[in-house]
Design brief:
heterodimer, A: 6 helices
């Protein structure tokens, strides 16, 4: 099973590209990409903006980050 | 000069308190790895990773500057109380030689300890924790490279006060005031006055501290264009300023 970032899965579920999400939260596409790869550390304000756009909670996006999450778990 | 550096290295190598300090730091690093690994057995615990363990190090380089102050006090080993320096002066060794040789010897020992502790951290992390493979080792190496000139500057600042004050506690208080408190105050004032913000940027503590960039992402200064160069420039400037000032003050100081 493919391990993917919850942010990427939620973004794709909303049909948004990295560029579109970045524009809506006032960040760069590179910033969104680095969060999805687990390399970047956003501040709490950006995290909340992302949650609002994707209609999910901080727990949905970040608390479960280390767990094995796959598409089936998220969309079942 | 080389002879004096050798004698300083010999004195430091016989310092049992220094070995105790190194032992405690090494034990804490191993304990951190062991605790994270133990908690990591719970799949819901997300921090038993090399990215977290190494990230704690390279995102906290500013606090490591304070450890340099502790290290500096241990390396000095209360020379003023032991009254050994006056023998060197009476033996005809110049004060500049004494000041510089002690500083160089401390720089060498500090650099070795710094590298050894980081190697231990990497070994413990990769041996006990889940490998994140998000470039954390590369990040640590970059942070280490950028941190060395800043640490040497902190050591030079600390040495300047230690060599010119009889009480190690007073000396360390002044060093902490300059390395930690002044940058924090200047940061606050810099929010109102642009010029102070520009000056505050060049202080070693602020260069070593992480910050949020325009994308609200945590950033380290050595990862932005010219950031590494700024670290080296700041380190060099503060090392030279405090070494020259400390040496000038030490010329006039009564060595008891």
């Amino acid at each position: 099973m493919e391990k993917a970032s919850p942010l990427k899965l939620h973004r794709m579920a909303r049909g948004l590209t990295q560029q579109e999400l970045a524009k809506q939260v006032g960040a760069s596409r590179q910033a969104i990409g680095s969060i999805e790869r687990g390399e970047g550390n956003p501040n709490i304000r950006l995290c909340i903006k992302i949650c609002k756009v994707l209609c999910c909670t901080l727990d949905d996006l970040f608390y479960n980050y280390a767990k094995q999450i796959d598409r089936d778990d998220l969309f079942m | 000069m080389l002879n004096y550096i050798n004698s300083e290295l010999f004195r430091i190598s016989r310092n049992k308190k220094l070995y105790l300090l190194i032992g405690i730091v090494a034990a804490l690093i191993v304990a951190m790895g062991a605790v994270l690994a133990a908690f990591g057995k719970d799949p819901a615990f997300p921090y038993a990773t090399t990215a977290f363990a190494l990230g704690n190090e390279y995102r906290s380089m500013n606090y490591l500057l304070l450890i340099v102050l502790v290290l500096s006090a241990y390396l000095d080993d209360n020379e003023y109380r032991q009254h050994t320096m006056k023998h060197s002066v009476s033996f005809g060794i110049g004060r500049s030689t004494i000041y510089l040789a002690r500083l160089f010897a401390q720089m060498i020992v500090s650099a070795v300890i710094y590298i050894l502790m980081n190697v231990l951290l990497v070994v413990v992390s990769f041996a006990l924790l889940q490998h994140s493979n998000v470039g954390e080792l590369n990040e640590l190496l970059r942070a280490m490279a950028a941190g060395i000139p800043l640490f040497l500057a902190a050591l030079a600042i600390s040495h300047c006060f230690i060599m010119n004050m009889e009480s190690a506690i007073s000396a360390e208080t002044y060093a902490v005031a300059f390395i930690l408190i002044l940058p924090i105050i200047m940061n606050m004032l810099g929010k109102q006055v642009e010029l102070i913000a520009k000056l505050a940027y060049w202080l070693p503590y602020n260069l070593a501290a992480p910050f949020f960039d325009e994308n609200s992402m945590l950033q380290l200064v050595w990862n932005v264009p010219n950031g590494m160069l700024h670290c080296y420039l700041s380190g060099l400037i503060f090392t030279v300023i405090f070494t020259v000032a400390g040496m000038a003050a030490f010329q006039k100081r009564e060595v008891k």
